[in-house]
Design brief:
Blueprint: H1 6-18, H2 32-44, E1 48-53, E2 56-61, H3 63-69
Antiparallel strand pairs: 1-2
Helix pairs in contact: 1-2, 1-3
Length: 70
């Protein structure tokens, strides 16, 4: 099992609390590429899943991610 970084643990907690998340594509979004990098890291580590929608990728936490967020 891969160890999570502090930003990845915070992202798991965010996904648990706020449900599925679709990052915005707006210019005023803070840390856009960095946020996507962390979320994609969670997908690679099997802590989140991603599905394609019209609004962009939608990230959802997995059960393993929920355990890590606790």
């Amino acid at each position: 099992m891969r160890k999570l970084t502090p930003p990845e643990i915070n992202a798991c907690r965010f996904l648990v609390k706020h449900g599925p998340y679709t990052p915005g594509d707006s210019a005023e979004q803070k840390g856009g590429p960095e946020v996507l990098a962390v979320l994609n890291g969670l997908v690679r580590k099997k802590r989140a899943t991603v599905e394609s929608t019209q609004d962009g990728p939608r990230f959802t936490v997995t059960m393993q991610g929920r355990d890590d967020a606790a």
